[in-house]
Amino acid sequence: MATDQKVGRQTFDEVMVPCYAPMQIIPVKGKGARVWDQDDREYIDFAGGIAVSCLGHCHPAMVSALKEQGEKIWHLSNVMTNEPALRLAKKLTEVSFAEKVFFANSGAEANEAALKLARRYAADKFGPEKDEIIAFKQGFHGRTFFTVTVGGQAAYSDGFGPKPQAVTHLPYNDLEALAAHISDRTCAVMMEPLQGEGGIVSPTKEFIQGVRELCDKHNALLVFDEVQTGNGRTGEFYAYQGLGVTPDILSTAKSLGGGFPIGAMLTTTELAQHLKVGTHGSTYGGNPLACAVAEAVVDEVSKPEVLAGVKEREQWFRDGIEKINAQYPIFAEVRGKGLLLGAALNEAWQGRARDVLLAAGEEGLMVLVAGTNVVRFTPSLVIEKSDVEEGMARLERAIAKLYNQ
């Protein structure tokens, strides 16, 4: 079989486009919150594939859904619909404000659909001059040319030629700046209800409610990018449910498939009718395999005990980090909500988040960064307490080594 071919980290440099700089280790199997590399070395996973592996690795409900669907039907195209897609769409409308669902393969694609819908709705209802999209600095919405332009990090969107127009970036959590800028020309405001890549920044209550009110005042749609915050990550099924503000359009991906690629755009019946037949599409969107796995994920994550468990686990993480920090003070604060947490480095440790990530890797722990000054934790939503404790012990050893250098 072809899998007998020996591959290692050097193979990446030989055959892969160099837009990533992966670590030297290559994980080959996972179970729960642990993974093993090619040398059978074990790691505890506090990264969850960047907030994707919400039920850990190889969760029985997901494995069984994949196997079962894998024996039935894999692909149909959108000339026909399929049962897993219909069941999943129905469930997503039951756990959210949404009445209509569009399936894609990733968060970027879900956001692309959201932005196209916002523009199309405004053009249909108010005319072509209502086209401005407001987003926020340090925001992240994907890597397609439209979504990366709307994302508020120029480093990701510069250098590819002329960008899509009528996109404005304002500071997050600055309601005055938004009030001063928004107008009847604004068709949508797109935001993360908790900034992920931008450093794990929570919105203030005043800001998030003010954004909703300003959108209503100017007939602009409020688009929530819940790619990272959704599917139980904050302890509510969607983060908006803990903020008392409902968006008009919501994008979801990452944890939705628990590791199987899938994304979705959720919206209302009134808005959805503006994407008529032929206006948007996706070859693989609504793929039966992906939808069957995502359905199993939604069934598990929407259980009240799982959502309550996220809040409990948040406290385990906060306590663990606080204990380490009392001994080796490198963090200024822990930000975020649920199991989307960021430990922000203090003044003396600025720019060293990746050092912590690499040191943790050496101790057998996988963590993430969010920028250069924040160590990010997005583990499985059902991680066992013993795994959290062992992971924290490894993190403490890693930080102790850095601290004592």
TrEMBL record:
Protein name according to UniProt: Acetylornithine aminotransferase
Similarity-based family: Belongs to the class-III pyridoxal-phosphate-dependent aminotransferase family. ArgD subfamily.
Miscellaneous information on this protein: May also have succinyldiaminopimelate aminotransferase activity, thus carrying out the corresponding step in lysine biosynthesis.
Keywords, comma-separated and alphabetical: Amino-acid biosynthesis, Aminotransferase, Arginine biosynthesis, Cytoplasm, Pyridoxal phosphate, Transferase
Modified residues (N6-(pyridoxal phosphate)lysine): 254
Lineage, top ranks: Bacteria, Pseudomonadati, Pseudomonadota, Gammaproteobacteria, Vibrionales
Keyword rRNA-binding: no
Cofactor: pyridoxal 5'-phosphate
Binding site for pyridoxal 5'-phosphate: 107-108, 140, 225-228, 283
